[in-house]
Amino acid sequence: MVSKIQVIGDAPDVVAVEQKLRQTAVTAVGREHATSFLIRLEGWFFRRAIQQLLAVSLDAITGLDFDAAFSDLRNQFGRANLPIDEDIAEMQADLAKYARQPFVQQLELIELGSNRVNKAVRDYMRAFSQRSRWLNENLLLPKEISRYERRLTEEWEDLFDEMVDTLGAEAAEVEKVAAARNLYRWAMTEAQRRIRPECDEPFVAKGSFHILADEYKIGWHMDFVARLMAVLEPAETTSA
Predict the structure, then answer these.
(1) Which of 70, 115, 122, 179 could make a disulfide contact with 93, Cβ separation 3.0–4.6 Å?
(2) pLDDT, position 234
(3) How many angstroms separate the CA atoms of 142 and 147, rounded?
């Protein structure tokens, strides 16, 4: 790998520093993940350098700053954790692109406000992008995503089935919507399932619920399957 660190200056020992960094990264996270680790470390350095250039009062980057960033990133690469990338964590909603997605239509069924729908789209985008990057960089173990989704789905099933039994077949629509919104509130605020014990970024779980909802594997309204078929299938038939 030709490190971006090489463009920082003309010091004669830049290559030696880069080699030392790679050796240290291999020691810290293993040879398999060393490149992913260094890319993120370089990203931190350049973001900090840009901040320093833009803010005259910002202190220079010190060895202590670098050590702290290195240690934090190493912890994110631990077996109980996963790295959360800043460019993904800062993604904002693009509702126009996702308005016809099943997970958004599910939120329409329970009459969710536009601000909460935008947050749902944002969390979906972040979780989808972050999970894809983890998989592309082999940071997840085989079938780790499927095991995680199974846990989320089974926990949802218990509450969904209880909701259906409590409402009964003759429930009014206003009751169905209210109960569905309570179920959704649980998924967004109370469900504590983590993909790994120390990976506590909220958008991972929230967005994963939306990914499952987009695949019709879970839903909020007790009649979500029938309702989605009625809403989405005509549009798909017309476009075909």
Answers:
(1) 122
(2) 57
(3) 10
Nearest alpha-carbon partner for 117 in 213, 200, 195, 193? 213
Share of the chain above pLDDT 90, in %: 66
What the block records as the tokens of 192 is: 């504590």
In this structure, the dihedral spanned by the alpha carbons of residues 185, 188, 189 and 191, taken in order and rounded to 10 degrees, is: 110
Residue numbers in the chain where pLDDT is lower than 70: 1-15, 17, 56-58, 233-240
pLDDT, tens digit, for every residue of 69-115?
A: 889 999 999 999 999 999 999 999 999 999 999 999 999 999 999 99
Q: Tell me how many degrees the CA angle 1-136-14 measures, rounded to the nearest 5.
A: 20
Q: Within 10 A of 137 (CB to CB), how many other CB atoms are there? A: 15
pTM of the model: 0.85
Residues 171, 175, 178: CA angle, nearest 5 degrees: 150
Measured distance CA(26)–CA(217) in Å, rounded: 40
Give the position of tokens 């077949």.
Answer: 169
Provide the angle, in degrees to the nearest 10, between the axes of the packed helices 202-214 and 144-167.
Answer: 70
- Among the listed residues 172, 204, 170, the one whose alpha carbon sits nearest the alpha carbon of residue 187: 204
- Separation of alpha carbons 206 and 103, rounded Å: 12
Q: Whole-angstrom Cα distance, residue 103 to residue 121?
A: 9
